Amino acid sequence: MDATADQKIIALASQTGGVVTMPAMQAAGVSRWTVRRRVESEFLDRRAKGLFVVNALAADRTELWVAQIGSRGAISHESSLRLHGAPIPGRTVHVLVPKGTDNKAPGSVVHETRLWFDEDVTSVDGLAVTTPSRALIDVVRPLHERRWTSAAQRLIRDGSLDPDDLIVTFQRLDRNGRSRRKETASLIGIVAGDEAMSESVLERVIFDGLTSRGVPGLKRQFRPPWYAGIRGIIDIAEPIGKTIVEGDGRPWHLTTDAIENDHARDREGARHGFLTIRLGWREVTKFPERSLGEAAAIITARRDAALRLAS
């Protein structure tokens, strides 16, 4: 046996929970023939094509490493919550991957998503895992309400979760088409703080933020044509591209209570060709580049498309 090859393999695998890939071994100078011999001698255990475990290094988290490296995604759902310290029973390994990913995660449950955002992924002892806020939102349906709130409160108490991050993550996923809105919002309302921001202040922050990002043609206090005979105005609108921007500075419990009314207003706007973008005060103040940058890009693209059609 080539002791040097064994040392190279162990050096690689010791960084990733006992797991090593064929490309990594080849890059270190270990040949395919040597890898086959190590599998035959049971020094290596082949888990999937190009994915191996050094048996002598196998430990409690090895299966998590197998799933994360094999899927090229992030440990997620209940598995993520357990890694973050939440009292969630079970040993099933869950992995979140971008939709269409060619993954090899033997023995794990793979969840494909089109709502993949880099800010929803963090690291625990070198493992790529979803953040506590993303993991909690992903397990709203599988977990009983009492177990969900217990996990969230434990993470908040331990300092692993900021309630504002939970709200911001929810708003980002909701804006991009995540379902189960009311069910998720109600659970967040149990554990989130109940602060508010002046609507006029938030409107000014959003307007100034969009304007500073080069968005033209914005109108404040806009009255859409279908509001004839109806009280009310819209915070901000870009009429050419038919985009509405609504800022939500309400306390969280009022936000959840108003969800159905918001949906009805959004549908009414959609019937007249207007897209509504809703921005909560927490995400605007905590993650302005993400929230305002995303809104600015959408508004500008819709305006440009409308102008091209009109020319």
Describe the structure.
This protein is an alpha+beta fold and 311 residues long. It folds into three domains: 3-59, Arc Repressor Mutant, subunit A; 69-160, no CATH class; 199-310, 3-Layer(aba) Sandwich (Endonuclease, Chain A). Helix content is 49%, strand content 17%. The chain contains 14 helices and twelve strands. It has helices at residues 3-13, 22-27, 32-40, 62-71, 77-84, 132-138, 145-158, 163-175, 181-191, 199-212, 252-257, 259-271, 281-286, 288-310, and strands at residues 19-21, 44-48, 51-54, 74-75, 94-98, 109-113, 121-124, 127-130, 219-222, 234-238, 243-248, 275-280. It has a four-stranded mixed beta sheet with strand order 9-10-11-12, sandwiched between helices. Strands 1-3-2 form a three-stranded antiparallel beta sheet, with helices on both faces. The chain has a three-stranded mixed beta sheet with strand order 4-5-6. The longest helix has 23 residues, at 288-310. It is elongated and about 80 Å long. The relative contact order is 0.08.
Distinctive features:
311 residues, alpha+beta, Arc Repressor Mutant, subunit A, Endonuclease, Chain A, 3 domains, 4-stranded mixed sheet, 3-stranded antiparallel sheet, 14 helices
What structural category characterises the helix and strand content? alpha+beta
Helix content range of the residues, please? 40-55%
Give, in spatial order, the strands making up the sheet with the most strands: 9-10-11-12
CATH superfamily of the largest domain: VSR Endonuclease
CATH class of the largest domain: Alpha Beta
Taken as a percent bin, the fraction of beta residues is 15-25%
Mean pLDDT across every amino acid position: 85
